[in-house]
Specification:
397 residues; alpha/beta; D-Maltodextrin-Binding Protein, domain 2; 5-stranded mixed β-sheet
């Protein structure tokens, strides 16, 4: 496959977590580094997937599990992709209709007190509706292989709700979520901002919980690149990641957030009123740089692969840890850290996730809390034992 030598085509969806790409362009960081980057605004994740596979895009903002699925050829779509850079942690929320919120409140006036209380109340509501012979709730996610899907499933299962038996899960592009909620076709959705806040501002939705409540500081979007392109242009690829790290560091400074809101709200960027971006950017729901957020921590990627196994999305396939290291190589990021004078994540990063309720230190780098809503801990060296402890899954009994 031949590549344009002077232009890097990168795709994105108009979501707040595309901010590093958009700000690197708006702040002139790409041009300062001698990079000619064309950002392509896309309509859906399937659109981005197809253009990455066709070579129309050399790279894109992408969902972590989606990167795994394309490399493995799930759904008969296969291309070698790689990522050494996480664009952000957190940032998604589960928004329900006002009608569903009121049903939950009727059962338990304290249903909104926490993500844990709300899912337990939802379990009771689902049981009552089943006894009355009423239809199951329909919840939407943005893509089958997405953090939205796996964190929503984790939250439901933690409350005793089987995501494939007790509710209907459907896939809808992020930009259509609010309209589908308004029409009553879905009862809730898990998506990135600004869609949850838009639904709330219109009086049609209520944010029940954020994905941070389910897994503190989960990786969300990555910069995915075509493996062939990355192999053929190692120096350009390194420069591209260095620029994105610079943009993330700028965005990580609280003093820059108001300026970032104004830049991102422009029609050619996100095209959304700054007020709708405020919650995600200024309330700390998105983490673009703090606590080594941009590093592709191997244990994080392994946890997401384990969820794909848990729900039967890999069939009989296993995803060995060394294969994930090939998809998410870390050497280039550590090299950039040395060049930029930043703390360098260790080569022998911990295999455990879910052990910390507060920020903690790993070698020279500071990491954020990583607890799960149910307190279950994960060790990527013991995936089989980890999965066997869950009463709700699609694994063979």
């Amino acid at each position: 496959m031949s590549w344009s030598e002077d232009t890097i085509n990168l795709g994105y969806l108009p979501l707040l977590d595309a901010a590093p790409l958009l700000l690197a362009q708006e702040l002139g960081y790409f041009s300062e580094a001698g990079l000619k980057v064309r950002l392509s605004r896309e309509a859906s994740w399937a659109n981005i997937r197809d253009k990455l596979c066709a070579g129309t895009l050399q790279g894109a903002q992408l969902l972590v599990p989606m990167l795994i699925s394309v490399n493995l050829g799930l759904n008969r779509v296969k291309t070698a992709l790689t990522s050494s850079f996480v664009l952000n942690q957190n940032g998604n929320s589960f928004t329900v209709s006002i009608a569903l919120r009121e049903q939950l409140r009727k059962i338990n006036p304290e249903a909104m007190a926490s993500a844990h209380t709300s899912v337990l109340t939802l379990k009771r509501l689902i049981q009552q509706r089943r006894e009355r012979g009423e239809a199951a709730f329909t919840f939407a996610v943005v893509y089958p292989y997405s953090c939205h899907n796996y964190l929503l499933r984790y939250w439901l299962a933690a409350g005793g709700i089987h995501p494939d038996q007790d509710v209907n899960l459907v896939v809808i592009p992020p930009s259509q979520m609010v309209a589908q909620l308004n029409s009553g076709r879905i009862d809730g959705f898990c998506a990135g901002e600004p869609w949850g806040q838009l639904a709330a501002s219109m009086g049609s939705g209520h944010t029940l919980c954020s994905t941070y409540d389910i897994w503190h500081n989960a990786p969300e979007k990555v910069l995915a690149m075509n493996q062939d392109w990355a192999d053929q242009h190692p120096e350009v690829y390194s420069s591209l990641l260095t620029v994105l790290l610079k943009a993330c560091r700028w965005l990580g400074e609280t003093a820059n957030r108001e300026d970032a809101l104004l830049l991102l709200a422009q029609p050619h960027c996100l095209g959304t009123e700054a007020d709708f971006l405020h919650w995600g950017l200024l309330a700390g729901k998105h983490n673009f740089h703090q606590h080594s957020a941009n590093y592709p921590w191997p244990a994080h990627m392994a946890w997401l692969a384990a969820q794909m196994l848990r729900w039967g999305h890999l069939g009989s396939m296993q995803v060995p840890e060394n294969y994930l290291h090939e998809i998410f190589p870390t050497k280039i990021f550590r090299t950039i850290c040395v060049q930029e004078g930043l703390p360098v994540p260790p080569i022998d990063a911990p295999t455990q996730v879910g052990y910390h309720a507060a920020p903690w230190q790993c070698g020279d780098v500071s990491l954020g809390a990583d607890r799960f809503i149910d307190g279950v801990r994960f060790d990527s060296s013991r995936i089989t034992e980890y999965l066997q402890q869950f009463p709700i899954s699609n694994l063979p009994k």
